[in-house]
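Weekly modeling sync, notes
Attendees: AB, CL, MP (scribe)

Item 1: holo prediction request
CL wants a bound-state model with FE2/S2 (inorganic) cluster before deciding which constructs to order. AB pointed out that an apo prediction alone won't tell us much about the pocket. Agreed to run with the ligand included and paste results into these notes for async review.

Input as submitted:
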Amino acid sequence: MYAIDHHDLGTPPSTSQTMVSIEIDGRPFAVPEGTSVMRAAALAGVSIPKLCATDSLKSFGSCRLCLVEIEGRKGYPASCTTLVADGMKVRTESDKLHQLRKGVVELYVSEHPLECEGCPADKHCELQDMAAVHGVTGSPYIAGDSCPPRVTAESRAISYQTDTSNPYFNFNPELCIVCSRCVRACDETQGTLALTISGRGLASQVAASQSESFVESECVSCGACVEACPTAALSEKSLLSFTKPTQAITTTCAYCGVGCSLKAEVADGKVARMVPNRDGHANQGHACVKGRFAYGYATHADRLTKPMIRATLSDPWREVSWDEAIGHAASEFKRIQAKYGRGAVGGITSSRCTNEETWLVQKLVRAAFGNNNVDTCARVCHSPTGYGLKQTLGESAGTQAFTSVMKANVVLLMGANPTEGHPVFASQLKRALRAGAKLIVIDPREIALVNGPHIKAEHHLQLRPGTNVAMINALAHVAVTEGFVKDDYVAARCEMASFNKWREFVAQERNSPEAVEAVTGVPAASVRAAARLYASAVNGAIYYGLGVTEHSQGSTTVLGIANLAMATGNIGREGVGVNPLRGQNNVQGSCDMGSFPHELPGYRHVSDNAVRGSFEAVWGVTLDNEQGLRIPNMFEAALDGTFKGMYIQGEDIAQSDPNTQHVVAALTSLECLVVQDIFMCETAKFAHVLLPGSSFLEKDGTFTNAERRISRVRKVMEPLPGLADWEVTMRLANALGHPMHYDHPSQIMAEIASLMPTFTGVTYEKLERLGSIQWPCNDAAPEGTPTMHIDQFVRGKGKFFVTEYVPTRERSSSRFPLLLTTGRVLTQYNVGAQTRRTENNVWHSEDRVEIHPHDAENRGIADGDWIGITSRAGETVLRAQVTDRVQPGVIYTTFHFPESGANVVTTENSDWATNCPEYKVTAVEVVKVDKPLDWQIRFRQNRDARLPSRHKAPAAV
Amino acid sequence: MHAEQLVQMVNDISAFFAPQFPEAEAAAEVAGHLKRQWEKRMRLQIVEILNSGEGAFSPVGRAAIALLAAEATRPAG
Ligand code: SF4
Ligand code: SF4
Ligand code: SF4
Ligand code: FES
């Protein structure tokens, strides 16, 4: 069932610019060529009866309910499969049509009796609607001898068992009308093709994979089939425990950087279900298992709801009023600054919070603390993107809209695993690939897109971890030496001196695929073929992820990617570009909002007097013109005794930052740590003040996704702790003596728009009207900018950089002979604080280490064994998964569970330009052991005691 | 901050700029990077390390910190 407020037009829109004139029931209309008669009628306000058609799927023409009469044509064509033609005259109602359609409905009702009371779809069921429209209350085929013969009651009882295996939705075959919408949704919308229609004629039935249960099948629980189903055959379990939702509130997913637009359907002030928004610009009606279903964490029993304070870490927590907690925090920060100096405190903003909230935290640091010690978790993920793209192109952001991929001929995917990390973009990418685009994957591991059942990459350059720069240089070498450079483009748009220097550098023999083969481990011939494919494409697009940034040369790789794209003329139009796939939902936004210690909002350096002056005028304070500390610098300064107080909003740095022991030592040395979070996270264990946070369902604001798209977050329920995060920051600033007063986040956005040239045209009113806006949005682009750098680069001329490959210090050695690299799974998110508190654990309840059979055998390790992983930083124990997805010499794990301790082993190595940690390469040794370490066992026990059984229903939101 | 680690960071930055420019220019780029990216405490400490004669700097790294040191002694610094 699609969202309760969706008005379905029956078939997808046509993209044609040519209009044709038609007449519907005697009234003239003009619609784009290629539009179906059904959609044209719907646009004209005439709803033609239908069952197998819906506007998210290609028309199918199976139910025969949408028949119409067309002047000059024989018979009764199906309006969903008939396209408009100029001068066409359509009649949608006649006695004959009514009679034909009624017969069809009666047949359906014979298979699906109208026993609607108590059905989750009651009052929102398309069959029920069709029966009502045609005055059908029962079926003449049910009583007596039925013709055609029906499935007998006995066979129905055997075959019609409800499949309840998926934790979030049921499949009840008895309610199925075999319209194939689910099968087509799994194919066209999701691209997994997990469903088929098995059996024939009236005995036909929907089946998952090889007639397995949903949870055992290859289904990824995206919910597309559930959204598409016209009846309750596929329906959300949550609907069973709520009264009918009466309101749909459009908001934005708080998980990954795709930023899907979702509709929260609300009953009695709570979320009864979450449905993708078919008008959503980032997701076009799709979602994944996280955004669609895993929102139960928001009302989990573990939510913190009361402010708490304690004098020392060994004292018990004491629940206090908001005023006392905030007063205490403010007086501590003031005391520390008086004693140790202005620079002794700082703050961390969160990519999980809204733009408005992030704005306030950085404003608090700069204006109330009076320093620039503000940083964000982007430090540990995409800070090299900010640096690299700013240096080369002039703006710290991706260049395209997601839909641009549909115009790409070749997609180069580097260090990203979208089917797990960015699932809805992955579905779009799969659509592009199935339409003929070619894929090159650069990744140490065989990700699903390399060799899937329906998708195959043209080339998989399976390089050794830590050799990205050598690889990018080799690709560029081929482009330059084999004549693929777009000279006109470069001459018109780039700095020639920098280009010539770069060309001369990459052309050197030492950068050839043959020369670097020993470093990357990838056969030179594959590199050459892949380079030719990308460089010769009409439209070549690069997408990349943390596998690019989280390296000691992360920034160099980003520069190298931009170099390659510029040299081959692949920036500045649709179908091309350089596209970072951002991890957290608001990483782009938190960076835009000035979360870096050296940059004011809009990526402008704090030393820029004019920019600083504009902020000083509005904020009424003098701002520090010196950059502040980055997160790792804060830790170091804490250990040195010059940094004593921290305000952390919505980040769990004790779990997410590298070298946990080091981080813990730093946090313990603070005199005042204020943590604002929705759960008692790992970092909160070192806090003196706990400010309970609010989830995305509890506040208004905006998120900005990986395509620079600003979308509204809308309040669905009251904040559980009584205050939304932005209100808490405001109170803290006031207590610190810097007055802040906003009645609503829209006023914060007005301030943002007044101070950021890329946001001057953004208002809540415009967001309401347009649905979403891609910045820059200003006088030059009043409705936003889907594609950047069209006529020229933001910095003027594009700048090339020489990208010398410098091997990481994390090299395998005799003591640590393997390289550990890290990644994500679809069903868990980041440090797992949210998804671990949902039924998603059904799919992934522990992190495992993938190890190649060869390395496993050498060490006597079998699948499922506990293995100890040791690096020079620390030791952890995880279960082994023996697989050839990884190459010999490389092991791989996810890091969604705190007891996995992935960051206990990662080192403090970091990107040279931004200090982004080198998560993707750690030299380790592994040995078979008997059991996890004691601290891991304790963690697991605590977690199991705290979390609901995975078979219990999640807390309802 | 660990002196060794700070020096290593300077050397890493230098390893990026050294191949792009002649040594003096590269050193200026590194110094410029540090001035725009590093907090004052770190810049002071790295100058101290240079002055103490301890750090195992790369040539460009050493030249860059020498530039920072020279600027720090100037009144405007
Ligand atoms: S939930 Fe998604 S993947 Fe699973 S069967 Fe439905 S459409 Fe396919
Ligand atoms: S499960 Fe729903 S969508 Fe799928 S065929 Fe049956 S009625 Fe149609
Ligand atoms: S997690 Fe990402 S892909 Fe999934 S629904 Fe949310 S924004 Fe969309
Ligand atoms: S809606 Fe047209 S045939 Fe089913």
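Recorded for review: Chain B has one domain: 3-73.
Action items: CL to compare against the apo run; MP to circulate these notes.
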